[in-house]
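SUBJECT: protein chain
CONTENTS: sequence, structure tokens:
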Amino acid sequence: MRVIGVDPGLRHTGWGVVEFKNNKIFHIKDGSISPSIKYDDSKRLLEIKNKLKEIINRYNPNLSVIEKIFVGPGSISSLKLGMARGASMVALAEAGLSIEELSPKFVKKTVTGYGSASKEQIKAMIKKLLNIVPKNEHSADALAIAISIQNIGR
């Protein structure tokens, strides 16, 4: 089974593709989509959607996993995160992928054993689990999201 994980964000949307085969996890590819800060929100959202569709078409996942929104104290940042998440979900749905949603705490606990792990801890575990250096913290988070699918009851 090939899975794409998505860590949505208006400034940086991380993505990572892994494959589960014979009880092993294999890294396929990871990266992030970072629309120009000169773009208005609508153009940034369109770029996220379009680039994510290109990635889906290139790596052919069977399933997608996206992080649920963590609502923090900044309502504007939560709103913008929600917009990026929506654009990402539209790309995944248009590709015909089933979309699983996981909480940040669940992902952190699955990958590191600790639900409040730091980004550095997640990146270190991704290096260890997949024997790769993720492109950046956003793609490390996306790979962690993809890997975490194995721990949900389906």
Summary: The longest strand covers residues 24-33. The helical segments are 41-59, 75-94, 104-112, 119-130, 137-148. The chain has a mean pLDDT of 94. Residues 75-94 form the longest helix (20 residues).
